[in-house]
Amino acid sequence: MAGRPRLDDAPERLVRAAVGLLAEQGPSAIKARTVASASGLSTMVVYGHFGGIPELMRAVADHGFRELGAAFAQVPVTDDPIADLFAMALTCRRVAHENPHLYDLMFGLSTRATYRPLSDADLRLSGHSPAFRDAHVHITAACRRLVDSGRAERQEPEVIAAQLWSLVHGYVTLELAEHFGEFEDPVVQVMRPMGVNFSVGLGDKRERAEASHEAGARLYASIVQGR
User: Does the keyword DNA-binding apply (predicted)?
Assistant: First the structure.
């Protein structure tokens, strides 16, 4: 019927509306009524497609991981896996700063708010979702190239990826919570040296690790300039 909104794209519209509300107003704005209004749909559509707000937020988190994976995919594969990894770390930081509340939701954080969990553990483990795995595979692949290059002691790439994932998100979480206010440039003074130390701990030479992180910063800058 003319004048009726299309419903075949309703899930995507609801997710994008929730993402926008998170960015503009934070999690307190996420209610069936406000999401429905922002998407031009009714509250019944929210419940019909997702069952409730917790399930909608899981879809929002998956959307965030797909966006993160797309951002990782923009980092070219070079002959320097450490530079690639640092460029991806800076990319993750940028994504987090663009929508901190979405980042909180994706990684189960409560720096700025608490999200209502799903009772079913299988539904709330966003870190095991296909969207998360599709993003994380970029990190694992670069870690595999790192091991194959001989610049890291032989070990499982998945283990290195998990350690690096923890390092990067620990830094980002603290930065978003404004713990580095005393530093003029926390990326240069904290994040990059931490990455260098991590690389040296894996078996790389310090001078080479420093050069790779500088190369990674340049690689990331070229990506941002080309956006």
Answer: yes
Residues 81, 88: contact at Cβ < 8 Å? no
Distance of CA 136 to the CA centre of its chain: 9
User: For the chain, which residues score pLDDT lower than 50?
Assistant: 1-4, 111-114, 116-118, 122-124
142-156 b/e (C-beta count within 10 Å ≥ 16 → b): bbbbbbeeebbeeee
**How many CB atoms lie under 10 A from the CB of residue 58?**
21
CA atoms within 13 A on the CB side of 215: 16
Q: SS3 for 11? A: helix
Alpha helices, H only, 74-156: 81-98, 100-107, 121-124, 130-149
The confidence score (pLDDT) of residue 111 equals: 41
Contact partners, residue 98, CB within 8 Å, separation at least 6: 23
Distance, CA of 20 to CA of 26 (rounded, Å): 9
Q: Residue 183 corresponds to which tokens in the numbers above?
A: 């530093």
